[in-house]
Amino acid sequence: MTERRVDEETGVETTGHVWDGIEELNNPLPRWWLWTLYACIVWAIGYTVLYPAWPMLSGATTGVFGYSTRGAVAAEIAAHDAQNATLTADLVAADLSALTAGDPLHRYGVARGSAVFRANCSQCHGSGAAGAPGYPNLLDDDWLWGGDVAAIAQTVAHGIRNDTDPDARWSQMPAFGDILNPEEIGSVVAHVASLSATDAIPDAAGAVLFSENCAACHGDAGLGNRDMGAPNLADAIWLYGGDTDSLTQTVTQARFGIMPPLGQRLTDADVAAVALYVHGLGGGE
Amino acid sequence: MTSTSLYAPRVPIFPRRVSGAFRRLKWWIMAVTLAIYYVTPWIRWDRGPALPDQAVLIDMAHRRFYFLWIEIWPHEFYFVAGLLIMAGLGLFLFTAALGRVWCGYACPQTVWTDLFILVERWVEGDRNARLRLHAAPWSLRKMRLRGVKWSLWLVIAVATGGAWVFYFTDAPTLLRQIAVGQAPLAAYASIAVLTATTFTFGGFMREQVCIYMCPWPRIQSAMMDADTLTVAYRDWRGEPRGKGHDRTDTTGGTLAKGDCIDCMACVNVCPMGIDIRDGQQMECITCALCIDACDDVMARTGQPLGLIGYMALTDAPREQAGQPPRPVWRHILRPRTILYTVLWAAIGAGLVYVLFVRAPLEMTVSPVRNPTYVVQSDGAVRNIYDLRLRNKSGQDRPFRLTLTSDDALSLALEGVEGDTVTIPADTTTLQRIYVTATARAPAATAHATPLRLWVEDVDTKDRASTATTFNGRVQ
After folding, report:
1. According to the annotation, is A125 in a ligand binding site?
2. Which CATH number fits domain B361-471: 3.40.50.300, 2.170.190.11, 1.20.1250.20, 2.60.40.10?
């Protein structure tokens, strides 16, 4: 330590450090400021003891509190589930068709179903539920297997044409390429196209072939049959396309869209919730 | 010779009691500001059954801010931003005109420190008694006095922290919860933290907060200039200073001395522990107590008052030349202060205008663009819109939704029969609506058709509308 010296110009004590004749003045910090530094160091050491901190050969110290971010998330999810336990039980027990839009349980179901949909359904039906060729649009008013909330829940739970759920909805259109010749298929396609287009020319031969081969499932007027998932051919909506090429391919080779039984993956509450959500997208019956 | 230290211990300050005009003003300001702080949460304001009846309430849980008849929603946060800007400009204005008046009179650190010093003086006596007690070794008497003082400080600190939490929830309910130990953890934690800071800052840190912790003293010099009125010592009048017996020379003749009798009254009353005679200093909070102290002495020695007083630096040469200072308004009315005032008033007028024209109902429209349109089985084309309907009144309201468009478009509400939906009091509701164009309508195949959505309060006929577009089926 050096001896005290006061700078004449400023009247301030110097530290005694001199560089090329320039002296360093000493305007001391308050001592409590130093204490706060020590307190921070003590705090930091305590923190590293209580929380995960020190890197070791494998992993890091876990800390006295045993805290982990994964554990915190798990605890939050558990707390969330516990908080919603009553609503979840109510949702499973509820008559979904009796729930109205203002009902808190309905609101909860739709909100929960929205999350379930994005995680489990949007891969095929799209995040906006507008579908794609072969994957039905869930926003419109056309339903292959029924559009009331119970029918939707049934479809979600058991799926369509899958081998894993004995209660899956099942129907299969024959591949008419083995039954009819290409000319006959052309006539049937022309007739089917005329069902929904008022300006198309009726095909008499096609109409006869249709009533012999197709009407059993699709009905004489082509209005379809929900009991066997037979599409309505007289409306403006085509799952696989309504142009001649698409229709020819459908009739010749048939279609076989599969939906997995989501009831095997989701809880009953999640199925009910996603049914409520889909029902409320605009096409619900 | 001792060695230098890079750290300095706090030198305790024992401000002496003083009386005078500025001390009286400070008592009044302290009483009024503390009363506002402690009483405000307990004022009731009837807003009907659906809304809280606390006059000033920051309701974090429900994201509402209530101030008397005004209710602020989160999307109206610009009111808070505007008020903060006004507070900032107000501070600039006062600092430019009158120096650190905020620090000296109204800052919570100053007000609470003043209150703590009042308690200290009441328990331990005035400056000299406190100095003696400070120097005395620990004894039963010293322990008793310290114990009483700290207990009273603690009571004030708890009351301060306690009052704070009442601003954030219904005060009577929370007080009952605190009394029976059922209040939320956040309430106890807030009270504990604010009690600790009030106790420490008001009792032990005091001027250290202003000098070392507060950024304001360092910023303020940018707002001050030579015309700013600050507390100053008129050294040309006071110097050379000298005590009474210094004024006579060895032969009994009077020496030419200044008015300052070096009685140290100004230093002894200073809560910041500085000597104002050294000129303007960063530590000075312009509390003006030295003015009171010096005027008292000047009156007793029969000299003119104002050896220490509010003064603008630009007046110093005039006063030295024996001329009167320029009038106060000449110092205050400057381009700088006028600019601050104009900006402050403009923002205030803007906020008041917005406050009075805002509607009790609001609607925001987000058209669903995933997908842009939906074809129905009859060939009709439908667009989906998510409406956010806000009912800002205290009653449930039936809102009727309609649309206007050049084309024939129909409107339907999800989950609701008809065109009217009831929005509960003081809530926002998300309502999905469907706008449909029949297969043959031009809008069904047009790229975009403009339309306007309307929401009308069936009871009050208040209306709001938003323009949006309808997307047709584009082949």
Report:
1. yes
2. 2.60.40.10
